[in-house]
Amino acid sequence: MGEERMSSNVGFRSPEEWERLAKERLEQGPFEYIQSGSGAEETLEANLAGLRNWKIVPRVLRDVSTLDVQSTIIGVQSNLPVALAPVGFQTIIHPEGELAAARAAAAKGIPYTVSTVSSYSMEQIAEVMGKGARFFQLYWPNDDEIALSFVKRAEKSGYSAILITVDTPLLGLREQDKQNQYFPLKNGHGLGNYESDPVFRTKANLETKEKSEVISEVASRLFNPTLTWEKVRWLRTQTKLPIVIKGIVHPDDARLAVENGIDGVVVSNHGGRQLDGSISSMDALEDMVKAVKGDIPIIFDGGIRRGVDIVKALALGADSVLIGRLYAYALIDGQVGVEKAITQLKDEFQTALALTGETKLIDLKKTMLLKR
Ligand SMILES: Cc1cc2nc3c(=O)[nH]c(=O)nc-3n(C[C@H](O)[C@H](O)[C@H](O)COP(=O)(O)O)c2cc1C
Ligand SMILES: CCCCCCC(=O)C(=O)O
């Protein structure tokens, strides 16, 4: 491992350095769209603090020469207990957007989650991924036939699970974006899945529309504040793919997920971009674990920046984690950048695991953590 680690130091970039470079290279609108949270950004900061506040109490003299970090995430194999989170509009970062990030995930053997508002279609992304594991994230439109069409297309193009994001009945109040008057959709990003959808095309009469009209048609269908568990139960009857609910932090919602036949939850506050003042992901995790651990897989996101953060989330009971901004910033260097970020995260995670005194994911336990 020594020689491999020396060579991986070439071109090393810390998460902070990726963020700094992204700020330098992107225009203010796109950069702040990625970086910012909602409101006063209390929850954005709380996600980071929530992880920082847990300290590891490491053990020693336990032969940590052989590590096993292989994982299963919603039924698919992964080289790490990590998947790339759905991040919409990736062409605001790099012209190859989702294609580059998805290729990187496939090359590194971890799952990639395609956002409903990806700039390339789910079929285009599937094609570049080959056998790479992929999930489809559903922003349920205000038209169930379009929602079902997305899910059927995901089935056909080899997606292994549907993640329904439920923390976005409407967009959080993001002050920087308001100041910048910036929302990527308005500039024509994030249309990949809508523009290619046969049901949407017919309903919106797309053949006769200018780009600006297409954008308005998508914008008018994107949000669905009427969504309830009843609709989720209906979707359960329409697909055999595992369904995961993304964006819950209340243990009662986790129980409801189990009762409604859901196959996993993502404990998430959307990276602090929705309800500002909501509980940090790490503070929510303990009660979510008490509510559903062992019933369905628990995925965690919000604030993961380094390998040691993954150790903490898994020790507190998560089965795996998603990373968002960490890879989004690295996407400024396209596929190479994202691959570099994943390689580094793996190195950090393995190092943190060994220095904690453990070799296997299953041995990460809450007893090795103290909250300070
Ligand atoms: C720029 C950006 C775009 C995002 N787009 C989506 C999206 O399309 N769908 C979704 O479910 N979550 C989206 N998220 C939230 C992420 O999936 C994830 O929950 C969050 O980024 C995790 O926090 P982290 O960035 O601290 O890792 C987005 C986050 C960012 C930063
Ligand atoms: C319901 C569509 C909202 C798209 C916003 C993308 C996103 O999740 C984010 O910016 O955060």
Helix % is 40-55%
Indicate the low-confidence ranges by residue numbers.
none
CATH architecture: Alpha-Beta Barrel
What value does the average pLDDT take? 97
Note the main attributes of this structure.
single chain, 372 residues, alpha/beta, TIM Barrel, eight-stranded parallel sheet, two-stranded antiparallel ribbon, 12 strands, 44% helix, 12% strand, globular, binds ligand LXCWX6NK
Structure report:
It is a single chain. α6 (about 120-130) links the parallel β5 (about 110-115) and β6. The chain has a single domain, classed as Aldolase class I (TIM Barrel). With about 375 residues, it is α/β, with parallel strands linked by helices. The protein has helices spanning about 1-5, 15-25, 30-35, 40-50, 95-110, 120-130, 145-155, 175-180, 190-195, 200-205, 210-220, 230-240, 250-260, 280-290, 305-315, 325-330, 335-355; strands at about 55, 70-75, 75-80, 80-85, 110-115, 135-140, 160-165, 245-250, 265, 300, 320-325, 370. Bound molecules: flavin mononucleotide and the ligand CCCCCCC(=O)C(=O)O. The ligand CCCCCCC(=O)C(=O)O binds near residues 222, 270 and 273.
